Each structure stands twice: as C-alpha cells, then as structure tokens.
Known about the structure:
By secondary structure, the protein is mainly α. 82% of the residues lie in helices and 0% in strands. It is built from 2 helices and no strands. It has helices spanning 2-33, 42-55. Helix 1 (2-33) crosses helix 2. The two termini are 28 Å apart.
Amino acid sequence: MLYIYWVLSLFGMIDSINAGHQKIKASMALWESDPFFLHESVVEDNNIREFDHLCQ
C-alpha cells in the first residue's frame, strides 16, 4: 500500500515539474518580450530548473 502511495506521489511530482517547465517557458517568453518585467516567481522557477537538472 505504501508503495502505491509512493508511485502516485512520484507522478504528482512529475506533474508539478511539467507545470514548472510551462511556467519557465511563459516567464522566458515574457522576459524576451519585455526585459524590464521581472516575474515574481523567477526564484521558484530557478529552484525547479535546478531540481530538474539534478534529476537528469
């Protein structure tokens, strides 16, 4: 039972990483169109990117 929960939580984590990727792409597109616009979740996006880099 614990194993099933672990697998489900892993899939949940993958979903959140994918959502993070979408947010990073949106932030980058916004950044390119308006360099002076600083997205308030840039720090969070960087953390997701670092985490994703560690996963590879």
